[in-house]
Design brief:
It is a single chain. With about 140 residues, the chain is an alpha/beta fold. It has one domain. Helix content is about 40%, strand content about 15%. The protein has helices at about 20-30, 35-40, 75-85, 85-105, 120-125; strands at about 5-10, 55, 110-115, 130-135. It has a four-stranded parallel sheet, sandwiched between helices. Helix 5 (about 120-125) links the parallel strand 3 (about 110-115) and strand 4. The protein is globular. Residues about 35-50 and about 135-140 have low confidence and may be disordered.
Length: about 140
């Protein structure tokens, strides 16, 4: 069973649970704890987590559904509107994700998100006392 006192809730981008390198980045963070030091910059990334490793949880907020963004905005926009219901995400957090994390030993929580994942990050940080947050600075382009 996964265990750890320091837990990071990873919120995926518009491509969902199976998209891109999401799982690879979660595994790297869980194993080595190096992600924040390599990819974050500035005051927003100051944290009191310390490597190595974290309990990293990647909730499937889309619940197994996916809409390929390449199919165009006429399909993507309605999908995002349907899946970005804070009351549903909050309920999943309170009734499923947080209890699972606490059962796994989590005592300190942080959250990170990319693209669409910034929605749960902002809401969790605004409503959950003590939730740590991580931001990503646009690099390059």
């Amino acid at each position: 069973m996964l265990q750890g006192e320091k837990c990071v809730i990873w919120n995926y981008d518009v491509f969902g649970f199976e998209g891109g390198r999401t799982r690879q980045l979660c595994d790297t963070l869980a194993e080595k704890g190096e992600f924040f030091s390599r990819f974050c910059a500035g005051e927003i990334c100051h944290n009191d987590f310390s490597p190595p490793g974290y309990l990293v949880i990647l909730p499937d907020w889309y619940r197994g559904k996916l809409q390929d963004p390449a199919e165009g905005p006429e399909k993507l926009v309605p999908f995002i509107k349907a899946e970005t219901k804070w009351d549903v995400i909050k309920s999943d957090w309170q009734k499923k994700v947080r209890p699972f994390a606490e059962k796994s030993g989590a005592k300190v929580f942080g959250t990170v998100g990319t693209c669409w994942g910034s929605v749960p990050v902002l809401r969790l940080c605004g409503e959950e006392p003590g939730m740590k947050r991580k931001g990503f600075k646009k690099i390059g382009w």
